[in-house]
Design brief:
142 residues; alpha/beta; two-stranded parallel sheet; 8 strands; 25% helix; globular; magnesium; BioW; 6-carboxyhexanoate--CoA ligase; ATP-binding
């Protein structure tokens, strides 16, 4: 599977039309000034890396959708063991050592509200152009 699982959070039923393809979040980027501000804020933490800002942009687009309750993501890169959970309530929280070093396992799950229109959600996640142009007022997570 290449994309994310779209999971009805109450019924534990997959809702993406093609379970081999999944849902592919795309067409998202940072406003350059906002990215510079974010990098300046997180640089002391050692997090101002492209892998992190790309993940944060994707997670921001996902969490901004009203149908989304939360997202869980971890890389299938065997050399990268960090993942994250993100939601409108908690923001973006990195999870270090989510898997053993060398493991090719990875994936992404979007937990959505029961009764949500999954076709509209998929369209927005895959086709709607999104620009991350502001940082949160509160520090919900990095």
């Amino acid at each position: 599977m290449r994309g994310a699982v779209l999971l009805d959070s109450a019924q534990c039923v997959r809702l993406e039309p093609d379970t081999e393809r999944g849902v592919r979040v795309s067409r998202v980027d940072w406003d350059p000034a906002t990215l510079d501000d974010w990098r300046h804020q997180v640089n002391p933490l050692g997090l101002a890396r492209q892998r992190v800002w790309e993940a944060l942009a994707l997670a921001s687009k996902v969490a901004a959708q009203p149908e989304i309750i939360a997202e869980l993501c971890w890389s299938d890169d065997p050399s990268y063991v960090t993942g994250y959970v993100a939601s409108p309530l908690i923001g973006y929280a990195r999870i270090t050592h989510l898997k053993p070093l060398g493991s090719p396992m990875g994936g992404r799950v979007f937990f959505i509200r029961t009764g949500a229109n999954s076709e509209e959600l998929i369209y927005r996640l895959e086709q709607q152009v999104t620009l991350v142009n502001r940082l949160p007022d509160s520090n919900k997570g990095v």
